[in-house]
Amino acid sequence: MIVPLRGEPPDSVRAVRALAGPGVEVLLADGEGPRGARLAEAAARASGRVLLFLHADTALPAGWADAVARAIAAGAAGGAFRLGFAGGGLRMAWVAFWANVRTGVTRVPYGDQAPFVRRDVYERLGGHAPWPFLEDWDFSRRLKAEVGANQIALLGERVETSPRRYLEQGVAKTVMKNWEILRRVRGGESPEKLAERYRGT
């Protein structure tokens, strides 16, 4: 399990570390540099044959390890969990519903869905690009192109991620901003420039 960290509260870091146990290795992708590069470096240090990437503000469901193992045993090259939010009411339930519809159709999960992938496939694809953000979307897109949609599992179990950014910035505003950023990166704008726009609003 690989967790990108930068400025997360101590409680979140402790909760992530507590996930370590038999068959579960937790590696923190902290330090300097773009998030994609830190994820790739941590993945290179991992010893397991399946890599799972977890945001520090996202909680995994009970039985998550068995669910991932079953998906891989059934032939999946990778996959992710369904998205849920820890609070936020109907507005955030609406965001999660459409995010799960999107993932079900596209088979391109995002980082807040705790994506996982077989290590050999990850290495064959060259890992995460050294982008400051959107490295999750880029890797999932390349994974789908490599293995096909039918080898990307969308598990029935849900993660619970923090709705803080949506609630602080406004749910509708955040959704529209996310769509605009994705439109721009698809149009060829650099991730570095987009990161400045994203983090400055």
Detailed description of the structure:
- This protein has 201 residues and is α/β, with parallel strands linked by helices.
- 48% of the residues lie in helices and 14% in strands.
- The protein is built from nine helices and eight strands.
- The protein has helices at 10-17, 35-45, 64-73, 89-106, 119-124, 135-147, 164-169, 171-186, 191-199, and strands spanning 2-4, 27-29, 50-52, 58-59, 78-82, 116-118, 152-158, 160-161.
- The strands form three sheets. Strands 3-6-5-7 form a four-stranded mixed sheet, with helices on both faces.
- Helix 1 (10-17) links the parallel strand 1 and strand 2.
- 35% of the residues are buried.
What is the structure about, briefly put?
The chain has 201 residues and is an alpha/beta fold. 48% of the residues lie in helices and 14% in strands.
Characteristics:
201 residues; alpha/beta; 4-stranded mixed sheet; 8 strands; 48% helix; 14% strand; globular
